UniProtKB/TrEMBL annotation:
One of its GO terms (molecular function) is xyloglucan:xyloglucosyl transferase activity. InterPro entries: Beta-glucanase-like, Beta-glucanase/XTH, ConA-like_dom_sf, GH16_AS, XET_C, XTH. This is Xyloglucan endotransglucosylase/hydrolase. Its EC number is 2.4.1.207. SUPFAM superfamilies: Concanavalin A-like lectins/glucanases. The active site is at 105 (nucleophile), 109 (proton donor). It comes from Helianthus annuus (Common sunflower).
Length: 291
């Protein structure tokens, strides 16, 4: 290859890499464009030109935000860095929810703890107003030391919860067995930081230490690869219907990873709570290994 041709190809490759990086960067929207601050006044702050968002909690109020758009199915990624130090009594959230009495909801909730004790990752799925499908985990890393990516994949077949792209939970669609599944109500993305010391930490035994306030959690790199739903309740993003998330499940590697998480890091599974369901476990508990 001639030297001039080599440099020409190298320059073209470099330009291609720059363009590719810009496309990737553009895929994570600005918080100014994607979110509305919903409560907490100055405790919720969009920073760095829309790239970062912080929520704070003090003894007077927590704070929160919600997506401008509603969605019906998709993949939702958010990077979080949780409240450091003594976070007992606090709850940081990232979840999807519709509105109304018979609402649907898909939850990541992060229950704080006293210094040196691990966060509890609380997951739940509501359909038609009914939840009671909790699983809880401890993490294999410190979620306050750096940002980590928390993901909800929601399609018509299943819901997958992932942490740093490692699946930790799957909730499958068992409507055929009479189990409601969220598939018809559009949902917004929500996030909040609030005080729940009546139940959040060790069943409410450890209270919030307000001398440590304000408590602050940080969010960044939100991305929704999802079907947006317009005012007429029809998808405005039909180009997403063939995206990988629309049929995403677990491959062999994913099944191995979720087994590892559930064997090593799960601390509560409603499908193992016989005292809570003395008349028999919920139907779905006998049908899927990875609920």
């Amino acid at each position: 290859m001639a030297q001039s041709e080599y440099y020409s190809n190298s320059k073209a490759s470099a330009i291609s890499l720059i363009i590719a990086s810009l496309i990737v960067a553009a895929s994570a929207g600005s918080f100014y464009d994607e979110m509305d601050l919903t409560f907490g006044g100055e405790r919720a702050k969009i920073l760095n030109g829309g790239q970062d968002l912080s929520l704070s909690l003090d003894q007077y109020s927590g704070s929160g935000f919600q997506s401008k758009n509603e969605y019906l199915f998709g993949r939702f990624d958010m990077q979080l860095k949780l409240v450091p130090g003594n976070s007992a009594g606090t709850v940081t959230t990232f979840y999807l929810s519709s509105q109304g009495a018979g609402h649907d909801e898909i939850d990541f909730e992060f229950l704080g703890n006293s210094t040196g004790n691990p966060y509890t990752i609380h997951t739940n799925v509501y359909s038609q107003g009914k939840g009671d499908k909790e699983q809880q985990f401890h993490l294999w890393f410190d979620p306050t030391a750096a940002f980590h990516t928390y993901t909800i994949v929601w399609n018509a077949q299943r819901i997958i919860f992932l942490i740093d792209n490692i699946p930790v939970r799957v909730f499958n669609n068992h409507e055929a067995a009479g189990v409601p599944f969220p598939k018809s109500q559009p949902m917004r993305v929500y996030a909040s930081l609030w005080n729940a010391d009546d139940w959040a930490t060790q069943g409410g035994r450890v209270k919030t230490d307000w001398t440590k306030a304000p408590f602050t959690a940080s969010y960044r790199k939100f991305n929704a690869n999802a079907n947006k739903v317009g005012p007429n309740s029809k998808s405005t993003s039909s180009e997403n219907e063939n995206q990988a998330w629309s049929t995403q499940g677990l491959d062999a590697a994913g099944r191995n990873r979720i087994r590892w998480v559930q064997n090593k890091h799960m601390i509560y599974n409603y499908c193992n709570d016989y005292s809570r369901f003395p008349n028999g476990l919920p139907v779905e508990c006998t049908r899927s290994r990875f609920l």
